[in-house]
Amino acid sequence: KNSSNLSLPPGPKGLPVLGNLLDLNGSQPWVSFTQWASTYGNVIYCKLFGRQIVVLQHRSSIYSDRPPLSTTKAIGSEFNSAQLRYSDEWRLHRRIFHQSFRPEAAKDYLPIQLRKARQLLQGIIEAPERYQRHIELFASSVIMSAVYDYEAKLNNDPLLLTAEKAIKVFLEMASPQTSAILETFPFLLKLPSWFPGASLKRLAIQSQINATAMVNIPFNYARERVMTATSNQCMISESLKRLDTSGNVDEFELALKSSSATAFIAGTASTLTVFVLAMMLYPDVQKRAQEEIEAVIGTDQLPTFEDRPSLPYVEAVLRETLRWHPVFPLGLPHYTAESDVYNDHYIPKGAIVMANIWAMSKDEVKYPKPDDFKPERFFMANGQLNDDTVDFPFGFGRRVCVGKYFADASLWISIVSLLATFRFMRPLDNEGKEVDPIFQWSTGLISHPKSLPCRVVPRHPEMTARMLADVIELSA
Ligand code: HEM
After folding, report:
1. Where does this protein hold heme (predicted)?
2. What is the pTM of this model?
């Protein structure tokens, strides 16, 4: 109890130092939090190493701060808008993003997203076994174009590889488990890098090098092109146009290049991999979506954004993909800069507050049989789509995802283009029988199927890369 006589929220009793670590499903903590809710209710308190953690099982717009992490500097992630404290610097980042990616402005990037979705189809038809790599390339090259007006090459593009390398290390270092360990045992980052067991320190140094490259190289490329008036519209060119040269130019440039680099750390590719898994496991859903596309568009053209209102079932497939397996199951951590009272519980200062997006997606009242992939759940009795657009996977309040409208368009155009062109089927065993795919889920902040085996075949068996190129040419 505290001075106002309110108690901390309930939660499992933990051990000193380790806290509730032993009670927690380490690779999928959101599953444990969701189970705990049936015992402790919708607001749970627990401790992980020294950190106080409050988990909310419902949507909440409270607490706009992010936890300060002593590892931020060590891994070179000061640039990351998503990690900034609630401050003027964060407001500047947010403004830059908002100007390019608010709903009206994000429309300017639809042509890029359409073009990249079709490149994705071409990549897959040429190398279907590498479909997952092409999905990753789609997600990052669409950002490269929209943010830097940089046309990434499909093979070994140096800027893309730099960004991807940087993100991989960040996600490893930023997982709740690794950061909790580093927060509790900061000496791990002080050991000389040759010291046995100092692998985290080595990883941290590598991360700093990657981050510097990722923040500066593409930005310098884009700025150069803006200065020589050769740039097309992109977040950098638009922001530099708005630059008030009487203000603090250095501060603005730093915010611009930092927020730009943050755009890479997004969930688009992971969400698309979840979509592929769902299509494989639910062939009837896949077929129904394909029939809808065929009825509306035919077979000799590819869908465009104009077709979106005429394809309600595809819309429901996108919503169900976001709901069925949210790729940020715990969102990003929020933080209490001051103590607070919430739902009659005392919330201490300095607590990490997580909204359990996973629990929201598995709400059996709202989504009966939540483990089933069922786009039909989004239709009302009159056959119209309901108004649940599944926005909770993008977070809440002032820290809600700033890229959500852009991400929504990228996801829709890639999903509809993939469905129009390919079938996603289960892998075959030695006897040629279809079997469920065997794969692992990634752990850490982002959860998605890793190395997901899938047979991706053109919907029309005679379709070749050459013919697809013709269809793309003929499509609007
Ligand atoms: C399917 C794709 C995506 C998903 C599921 C997703 C999800 C999220 C989530 C859960 C958060 C944390 C919200 C919170 O703290 O409550 C977030 C924050 C953020 N997202 Fe996204 N995101 C996606 C795509 C994107 C894209 C494409 C961009 C950039 C163009 C982007 C930029 C950001 C930024 C900058 C933040 C930090 C916001 C802040 O801290 O103020 N995201 N996103």
Report:
1. 401
2. 0.94
